Amino acid sequence: MIVYSHADCLLKFNGQGHPERKERLDSILSSIKSSDLKVEFREAPLAHLESIELVHPKKHIKQIFSNIPNRGIVGVEKEPYADTILCPNSKNAILRSCGAGLAACDDLIKKNERVFCAVRPPGHHAETVRANGFCFVNNVAVAARYLQKNYEINKIAIIDFDVHHGNGTQEIFYKDKSVAYASSHEFPLFPGTGSENETGVGNIYNATLKAGTESKEFFKIFDTKVLNPIDKFKPEVILISAGFDAHIRDPLANINLNSEDFYKITKLIVEISNTHSKGKVISFLEGGYDLQALSESIRQHLSALKTHV
User: Fold this and answer.
1) CA distance 269 to 286
2) Sheet with 115-117, edge to edge strand ranges
3) 30-74 residue pLDDT tens
4) Which of 22, 30, 31, 142 could pair with 295 as two cysteines, CB 3.0-4.6 Å apart?
5) pLDDT above 90: residue 77
6) What is the pLDDT of residues 219-245, one digit of tens each?
7) Domains recognised in the chain with CATH numbers
8) Which of 125, 123, 122, 112 lies closest to 273, judged by CA?
9) Which residues partner with 130 through β-bridges?
């Protein structure tokens, strides 16, 4: 199995006290390297704009990059919600994060390699023409479009177990029957989208979780409202938006999963991929803001990704 990352992803700075900080990625990479997981680390390339433009218009991306400051930091939203931050090192971090997914697609199809993209900034809140929720480019959406364009993949499933709903991914594919999007998330919670009556053209599956949901109830909901519809969809490739903020330790949410639960979540996804997708899975880091929870959960996630082929 391959892990893509890059030092550029560590250089993005969101300000003191911001939850989406470089230490998140540091803890993940250190945890993988100190484990007995045998993975191959590769440097994420810079994404080309023409690939990003499969999802986001050129004008929008150029506007984001033109707002990057020469010094200091700037928020892209209006106050008081300006927590999606640009700093002088943002451009390469954004391009590496997206580029990891594109390289992963090539490895997946050409070499049948499973891949985890250990990158930041995350992507699943990024809409077609709106950066928000710490996200600028929707990495998983660009990967899906890249697979369809370059490898003639017809049916792609995106499974998102981040505790926050992936409003960007849903918006991008809301009227596209070729992509199924299934998300388990606390509701109500940021970004406020993801109710179960948001169904697109029958391709959107939202599994809402009440604050305080424990593991047993989570898996009952996840099986019924996420895994079952994806199983029926029969995807050719599964992409995972892997957020670890449904962990009981996470400061930004109120779901009570433990680290070992992320092994089971991943194992269940991989089993569906083995049935329908010849085991083809790429996982992308999204949220997760407690360093101990991240360190433990990522080992569980990669262990399941790596073992169940």
Assistant:
1) 17
2) 40-43, 2-5, 115-117, 281-285, 237-242, 156-160, 179-186, 204-209
3) 999 999 999 999 999 999 999 999 999 999 999 999 999 999 999
4) 31
5) no
6) 999 999 999 999 999 999 999 999 999
7) 2-307 (3.40.800.20)
8) 112
9) 127
Q: How many residues does the chain have?
A: 309
Q: How far is CA 239 from CA 118, 142, 163, in A?
A: 14, 11, 17
* Count of beta carbons in the 10 Å neighbourhood of residue 217: 14
Q: Which two tokens stand for residue 42?
A: 């590769």
Q: Residue type for 1, please? A: M
Phi-psi region of 236 (alpha: psi -120 to 50; beta: other; left: phi over 0): alpha
pLDDT tens sequence across 150-177: 999 999 999 999 999 999 999 999 999 9
At position 183, the amino acid (one-letter code) is: S
As separate numbers, helices (DSSP H) first and strands (DSSP E) second, the chain gives 11, 10
Q: Which residue in this structure is represented by tokens 């670890």?
A: 244
Tokens coding 124: 């699943």
Whole-number Cα distances in Å, 148 to 109, 180, 210: 11, 13, 35
Question: Over 70: is that where the pLDDT of 309 sits?
Answer: no
The position carrying tokens 């599994």 is 207
Positions marked catalytic: 125
Name the percent of the chain lying above pLDDT 90. 97
For residue 80, is the peptide bond before it cis, meaning its omega torsion is within 30 degrees of 0? yes
